[in-house]
Amino acid sequence: MQFITVRQFSSGDKTLPPMTKSRWWIPTATKLLALINAANNEYSPPLLHYTELYNSALDHIDLMQDYYVWQNCRHPGQFAYCQYPFILSILAKRFILTKDSEQQMILNARKSLVAKMTRHQMPQIDIFFLNINVRRSWLVHDSLNEITCKQKDLKKKLKVSFVGEPGLDMGGLTKEWFLLLVREIFDSNYGMFVYHSHSKSYWFSVDNKEGNLREYNLIGVLMGLAVYNSNILDLHFPSVCYRKLLTPPVVPNANIARIGIIDTPSLDDLNEIMPDVTRGLKELLDYDGNVEEDMGMNFQISLEEFGEMKTFELKPNGAEIPVTNENRTEYVSAYLDWILNTAIYEQFKAFYLGFHSVCASNALIMLRGEEVEMLVCGSQKLDLSQLRKVTEYDGFDPTEEFIESFWEVVQNLSSELQKKFLLFATGSDRLPIGGIAEMSFKITRLPHRMDNLPEAHTCFNQLVLPRYENKKILQEKLITAISNAEGFGLE
């Protein structure tokens, strides 16, 4: 990788031959790395973490030009780094995906404008956006209806408004809509996703009696809109979910094509969801005694969902087929396939199609499942001392005692309250991929209102503070504000 960096950025190095005589160097070196990457992926787990093959120096090339070369069918033999996405960092891929999304937004807005002008109609500013207007008390219902009615607008810039509430969405209302909608639809009352405490993750309910396929599609659309509009969601899916989301990375044309199927699901995949069950299956495979007599198992699976134990057959007449030493491997394979594929196929298909209805792009092909997860969820690593380094002040001196006290209070908050603080001030308790260094943050003084709670303008990552009399009052007011942030003090 260092060789590629030196050759790529060696325009002033007289010790190297001119590029005209060594154009083959970079393609050859990259293809060699591709062989190493392919071999590495054959191991489980891989010998190298995928990020070790990133070449961050390539973040500084003209990435969009490289992307266009890759997309240009008229020059199929021309080299582009995008042909070998394993070498591009997540920051480079995010840049390409963001720019590609922006261009699609412009294209769709232009089409709407042309359509209006063709019909001799006066265009309104709303035609350039995906406008979501919802009632808080009917959040999921209204969101479903809005998205269903505005399918053709999904690739426009998102704007959200809440019925009966003033305010122009400069980003803050969109963040709040994402937050509240995810929180509500993952609630157990909807019966769509089951929380697994051992892995602290959610998985699709295997018993879709409620027929919530529209809601599963909505979650997929929501994830797609988050990536498309560069927002971060507080989702707790296992990594295998994102790998399924890229299987295949492009929506197949034929309706008969299987979507989101893991061909050979493994115990490692299940371990991301149900580590306790995985241990039991490993013990079954390693058991030295008589499996049939000692364990008394059949080709059935029993799962608890929402306080109710449910039993399903893994194959026809599974209740009558005992698990033996001879067929236990078949039983484990059937168990894995049922949990990860068969039982959730329709639910996941709706989810998959929702995501790709927004994010369908050749740029998506370059991503790994783990990278999609990072784009959707951001980073959970909080270091608020780094936030202080990027903070700007309006009405305060960064070295004054009040500001020193403020940061002491923030640093001494529990990790849960620190997440709430970040949520209150920015609209998200997650950080973008590049971390706090990529954020802007501003603390503004609120004069003459000493009794007010802190306020936040989440669309601008701005915290508004009165100059409280002492550190104790500051702490009390801040904790009160961040603990009751939803729908209060957020703009």
From TrEMBL:
Active site location:
459 (glycyl thioester intermediate)
Q: Which GO terms describe its cellular component?
A: cytoplasm
> Would you tell me the protein name for this molecule?
HECT-type E3 ubiquitin transferase
* One Gene Ontology biological process: protein polyubiquitination
The entry's localization annotation reads: Cytoplasm
Q: Does the keyword Cytoplasm apply?
A: yes
Identify the Gene3D superfamilies for this entry.
Hect, E3 ligase catalytic domain, Hect, E3 ligase catalytic domains
In terms of PROSITE patterns, this protein maps to: HECT (PS50237)
Pfam families given in the database record? HECT (PF00632)
Keyword annotations from UniProtKB, A to Z:
Cytoplasm, Transferase, Ubl conjugation pathway
- Give me the reactions it catalyses: S-ubiquitinyl-[E2 ubiquitin-conjugating enzyme]-L-cysteine + [acceptor protein]-L-lysine = [E2 ubiquitin-conjugating enzyme]-L-cysteine + N(6)-ubiquitinyl-[acceptor protein]-L-lysine
Q: Which InterPro entries match?
A: E3A/B/C-like (IPR044611), HECT_dom (IPR000569), Hect_E3_ubiquitin_ligase (IPR035983)
Q: Where is the HECT domain?
A: 150-491
Lineage of the source organism? Answer: Eukaryota, Metazoa, Ecdysozoa, Arthropoda, Hexapoda
EC number per UniProt: 2.3.2.26
Stored SMART domains = HECTc
From the Swiss-Prot or TrEMBL record, what is one GO molecular function term?
ubiquitin protein ligase activity
The residues that cross the membrane are none
Record carries keyword Cytoplasm: yes
